Amino acid sequence: MLDGLRDGIRADDKIDDVITVTDGQSVMQMLDLYRPDLLVLAMADPSQSVQVARTCSTKWPQVRTLILSPDVRSAFRYVAHQYGVSEVMSTRAGLEEILDHLEVIMAGKSPVRSTEVQQVERELKDNGYLPLIQAREVDREILSYVCDGLTDREIADRVYLSPQTVRNRISAMLQRCGKSNRTQLAIMYAPISSMLSKSA
Predict the structure, then answer these.
(1) For 141, how many CA atoms within 13 A lie in the half-sphere containing its CB?
(2) How much is the pTM?
(3) Which of 59, 87, 161, 168 is the most buried (most CB within 10 A)?
């Protein structure tokens, strides 16, 4: 499918060049050298695509990004859009559909309507995920350590906070997410943690 997409993009007279890379580091080097208008990410690890898009939107905000991913769940799409991704599409989408979306993106428009983003936001809020996605960096770091099974004291040593502050932050996240214990919070956070991590 990617070969067909590459050929379809090359055939489009509105797009000057197509460069193919296979990993996040190569994407960053390519962006430094060529500064394309459009970036299509179809990495094996969808969370890596989000991290590359996050870095890209910070360093090169003019670059429009489309992520092709097997993961098109609400949380993934919401986080991707928060990090400046123009569109997330399923890897099962047809070539014509993808090319149509690319034309819309290249025209400077988003195929995603604000009402769709608001709907996804409501869905995430109703399911308790929104507080996790919107959590501060230190809270996400704490949650990652909770997922690893660390105690409050062990977490406190790693994030340079007191054990009581760590307990307070975990308690606040439990309340915001409607969970009653750390295990429930860890089960909820683990699937989305990699796309929210700081590293690209």
Answers:
(1) 14
(2) 0.69
(3) 87
